[in-house]
Amino acid sequence: CIYTLELQQLIDLSTNRPKLAENYTEDTWLKLRDAVGAIQNSTSIKYNLEELYQAVENLCSYKVSPTLYKQLRQVCEDHVQAQIQQFREYPFWGSLDSLSFLKRMNRCWQDHCRQTIMIRSIFLFLDRTYVLQNSLLPSIWDTGLELFRTHIVSDSAVQKRTVDCILEQIEMERNGETVDRSLLRSLLGMLSDLQVYKDSFEERFLIETNRLYAAEGQRLMQERDVPEYLHHVARRLEEENDLMITLETKIICNIPVAGLSTLLDENRVTELALLYQLFNKVKGGLPTLLQFWRDYIKSFGGEIVCTPEKDKDMVQELLDFKDKMDNVAQSCFTRNEGFINAMKEAFETFINKRPNKPAELIAKYVDSKLRAGNKEATEEELERILDKIMIIFRFIHGKDVFEAFYKKDLAKRLLVGKSASVDAEKSMLSKLKHECGAAFTSKLEGMFKDMELSKDIMIQFKQYMQNQSEPSNIELTVNILTMGYWPSYTPMEVHLPPEMVKLQEVFKLFYLGKHSGRKLQWQPTLGHAVLKSEFKEGKKELQVSLFQTLVLLMFNEGEEFSIEEIRTATGIEEGELKRTLQSLACGKARVLNKNPRGKEVEDGDRFNFNYDFKHKLFRIKINQIQMKETVEEQVSTTERVFQDRQYQIDAAVVRIMKMRKTLSHNLLVSELYNQLKFPVKPGDLKKRIESLIDRDYMERDKETPNQYHYVA
Fold first, then answer.
1. Comparing C-alpha atoms, which of 322, 343, 318, 330 is closest to residue 272?
2. Which of 205-209, 444-448, 529-533 has the lowest mean pLDDT?
């Protein structure tokens, strides 16, 4: 503790220290060498520790670190070499001398460790600058271990005698005598720290153990009857178990648990299982391993979530990482509940380090799996993928962000007919309902309900049309969407052909006749059509969007049009029109010719109908050029979520105050945290409370400003 305190004082010293002379003088080194000698000889140091630390820092600043490091090593080496003779010349006449030898060895080892710590505290600046920057150089502590191992423990005579004496003490205990276990524990720890335990001790220990019990077994079988022999064996096993616990505790505790990262990175399941078994044998071993396991998951997962460059593959990497950690917990950590709970806690921590983005990307990942054209998985595999996604989804705090993006993508799948499987869609909806409750999925369920009701309405509309005196040659299908269920779409006015306008009016008359008081708002951006076309090769059917339909119908009236003429005739917004023309004239199915040729549509381009168009299919789907979701759209979706959150906070505050009438600020905030289902900062809650006070929903107490009253 003294050394730690002194070391902390040295680190915390002010930077305004007096500078030593700029030149590296012999006097400065002699002062440092005297201090090192005093530490090694356990005598008082003549100089102030602060002054010595400052001397080292100045010497390092004047580029003499290599020389200083070599001189320090030499002084330490000379001292360690001088210690070896006392062990070589030590008398060896019996068990008392054996114990005395071990005590001397242990004292020498303990003194060496203490001295090395003290020397390192003085030369800390050297250790943390020059040594740290040179990876081939051992630190001052490692240098101390290396010198002790090289000059004392690796000396063949000293090593043999040390091991002989340890084995002798173990045999004495096996024979019923009392021995100093703490001494044995310390010396075995020394062998382990110096990395000579296996080569110098373990093999001989096993040989001696085998020899002892083989001889004892033969002798006792002849001297004792079976019951006595069995009791002796049980006692021996208990004694050996105590010994093994002593050995294991010291050896296992020296295993570098930090190496767990490497084992996990490389998925070394055999070694991880062995590591768990070893730490399970030691008191306090598993909690240590558990903490490293938790920290590793937070660190590795945090890198996946908090690195924007990995956003494209974030969800897949999270799923793979979760699978990998599940496998380790199951096959290596024997499904230990503590490790499984720690994993869940770590996942929840790191996945919410970056608010909103993981929720958004999980929604998009689900969309990619449920969209038509996803041929990666069978129905069974898709179900397994959705189950895995739900596990990751559980860890997210801001589930309303997921809902906003999921709803937007679901709408596209339903309205454009791009859903891979209705069963898979409803399965995902069921999982979300089970996880988050009926309120979470009510709007999503409403979207499905709208689609089913629309089918029924269209059956009735077709019957209605059959009774009309002037039947239309256009077959109209309409999806009636409840505005509160679906994402909001920006209305876009376009110029429809008279036949379409007339048919819209017929449907409007039909629908409002059945549902008076309702208002219909047409959304042309979501419409699509099937056109019958004639080419030189023959008749074809083109499956196109409504915008593509409006452009193609113009060529019934003329041979060639400029982009300006098409814009005037259709009323389609410029950016949308260019993408539409690009899909018709520059894509795989080029039913229009563009002049001049090119992959992009520019102002001044002219278009004509491609009568020479050929395709092996009769019905051809011409995909609209999809505009990638812009940053503005993502921000807009997120802002809508935040706006909804403000409404929810306001409603929760009013609900609580109406019930409680009077409440302190802290209790109100505590109640809000219990009721709200999304993460929110105290500052945001305070703003909403202030807003409600301004709007006279509540008021502050005149004498206690930190208390609120409900205003009826």
1. 330
2. 205-209
Name every residue whose Cβ is closer than 8 Å to that of residue 25 and which is 6 or more positions away in sequence.
none
Residues 450, 612: Cα–Cα separation, whole Å: 42
Q: Return d(Cα 328, Cα 273) in angstroms, integer.
A: 8
How far is it, in rounded angstroms, from Cα 68 to Cα 66?
5
Quote the distance between the C-alpha of residue 239 and its chain's center. 47
> What H or E segment, with its residue span, contains residue 531?
strand 528-535
340-348 contact pairs (CB < 8 A, 24+): 342/290, 342/293, 342/294, 342/297, 343/293, 343/294, 343/297, 344/395, 345/294, 346/294, 346/295, 346/297, 346/298, 346/301, 347/297, 347/301, 347/322, 347/392, 347/395, 348/395
Q: What amino acid occupies position 614?
A: K
Q: State the helix-helix crossing angle for 357-370 and 631-660, rounded to 10 degrees.
A: 120
Task: Give the angle subtended at the CA of 110 by the CAs of 113 and 151, to the nearest 5°.
Answer: 70
Structure tokens given for 17: 């220290």
- Hey, is 542 helix, strand or coil? strand
Strand duo 698-700 + 619-621: pairing? unpaired
CA distances from 122 to 1, 31, 42, 68, 460 (A): 16, 12, 16, 13, 93
Given this model, what pLDDT does residue 98 score?
83
Alpha-carbon dihedral angle through residues 590, 595, 599, 604, given to the nearest 10 degrees: -130
The pTM of this model reads 0.59
CA dist 124 and 129 (Å) reads 9
Q: Which of these, 248, 173, 162, lies nearest to 212 by C-alpha position?
A: 173
Distance of CA 218 to the CA centre of its chain: 60
DSSP 8-state class, residue 128: I
- The pLDDT of residue 24 is 47
Consecutive H or E run containing 39 = helix 26-40
Rounded CA-CA distance 709/657 in Å is 7
Cα-to-chain-centroid distance, residue 184: 44
Beta-strand pair 606-609/592-595: antiparallel
Q: Please tell me whether residue 50 adopts helix, strand or coil conformation.
A: helix
pLDDT exceeds cutoff 70 at 225: no
- Please give the structure tokens belonging to residue 516: 């008076």
What is the CA angle 573-578-584, rounded to 5? 125
Cross-strand bridge partners of residue 592: 609
Place of tokens 């709803």: 407
- Would you say 60 and 125 are in contact if contact means Cβ atoms under 8 Å apart? yes
* C-alpha separations of 44 from 1, 5, 54, 73, 358 in Å: 18, 17, 19, 21, 61
Task: Tell me the β-bridge partners of 664.
Answer: 707
Give exposure, 433-444, as e/b (b: 16+ Cβ within 10 Å): beebeeebbebb
Tokens of 237: 């096993």
Sheet strands side by side (includes 662-664): 662-664, 707-710, 698-700
Sign (positive/negative) of CA torsion 557, 561, 565, 566?
positive
Per-residue pLDDT at 176: 76
